[in-house]
Amino acid sequence: MENLRKHIEEITPISDDEFEYVRTFFTKKRVRKHQFLIQAGDRVACEYWIANGVFRAFYVDDGGREHILQFALENSWLSDYHAFFYQTGANMNVVCMEEAEVFCLTLLAREKLASDLHKMEHFFRMKVTSGYTAQQHRIISLLSRNPRERYEEFGSLFPDIVKRIPKKYIAEYLGISRETLSRIHPAHRRRSLN
Amino acid sequence: MENLRKHIEEITPISDDEFEYVRTFFTKKRVRKHQFLIQAGDRVACEYWIANGVFRAFYVDDGGREHILQFALENSWLSDYHAFFYQTGANMNVVCMEEAEVFCLTLLAREKLASDLHKMEHFFRMKVTSGYTAQQHRIISLLSRNPRERYEEFGSLFPDIVKRIPKKYIAEYLGISRETLSRIHPAHRRRSLN
DNA sequence: GGCGCGGTGTGATTTTTGTCACAAATTAAT
DNA sequence: ATTAATTTGTGACAAAAATCACACCGCGCC
């Protein structure tokens, strides 16, 4: 839980008392590999802060294909946010890929936290703002880059994810087939780079 | 300016005094068709609230192709948000497509407004949150739907935009060529739908 | 320590979409 | 109103990526 405090303090300083108050809103949960945190159709009670472990959030289309919206590692937040904020049934699935420990925050808890502590409202605004700009970047990438370029960009943005996650899932994230990804070979090192 | 108040009050009620205070942070600007509000490379001083008029925000890739990130009509917010929040040079261009009147808000003004008035922090959080979920939806659409499906979805989500904006720009938004879009013909009305 | 399953690489082929070229239609500008 | 500019449609063709099929690898699990 200390890490959650550090995580919050990357955005805003927070006193011991305040943090003691904040922590009361969270509940801890252990999750094993292959376990679903959210299944399509579920009511989405919580958003999750990942203390450790790995998850993927994916959408299953009408043809049964999976499309990954997000990988989540330690220190990141995760939910089906549309379903969470609007309290509708989930369209996403969230599955554990490496044994994990997460902290759960209900919508009510989150909104009370934000309205009680201006600091926390600010914190959540900053978090969603950076998520927003990151998603804009991803949209631009999907619109303007070919599979090789997207894969290379992904590798340089998220080297830790590339190491920990099977390539087939990265293909699902990039919107290309696993075969196409498999045929992307590292660019030849040019002589001039000796 | 009355509309801005209505717009804010869709999220949170606000007193006369508060709104008087809020309005002092904005400056008004008229923009003519074809005029750039933001050009790639610029420092992005403001975000803009559109009182009336139409804009598009687009990215130009290395091959000179344009990719549209956002259309903005009346009552919406617009900027190159990455460049705005992180105060880096713009990667986007924002161009006026129909004569417009906008209200400008600098980053300093925005952050002061948010820290002075918890209400406004809440307002901005809610706005960016709904933008975030809308963008997630768009990413899923880019990953999982073919051009026809994306175009039909776009038409049902944004009928007003389809009416007001040339199709070539919609193609640039959907990530397909204008020719492909032009070859998408309305689905045949099935007999059973008489 | 063998067995099974999930993951990966690769060839052959098909499908989808982009590109190029040009004409027609629509809209804007003087 | 006429002229210019922008937008749209469509055919022929090329390019990119998906799909299908199959072999093989590697690791976890009894």
From TrEMBL, chains A, B:
<dbReference type="InterPro" id="IPR014710">
    <property type="entry name" value="RmlC-like_jellyroll"/>
</dbReference>
<dbReference type="InterPro" id="IPR018490">
    <property type="entry name" value="cNMP-bd_dom_sf"/>
</dbReference>
<feature type="domain" description="Cyclic nucleotide-binding">
    <location>
        <begin position="29"/>
        <end position="106"/>
    </location>
</feature>
<dbReference type="InterPro" id="IPR000595">
    <property type="entry name" value="cNMP-bd_dom"/>
</dbReference>
<protein>
    <recommendedName>
        <fullName>Cyclic nucleotide-binding domain-containing protein</fullName>
    </recommendedName>
</protein>
<dbReference type="Pfam" id="PF00027">
    <property type="entry name" value="cNMP_binding"/>
</dbReference>
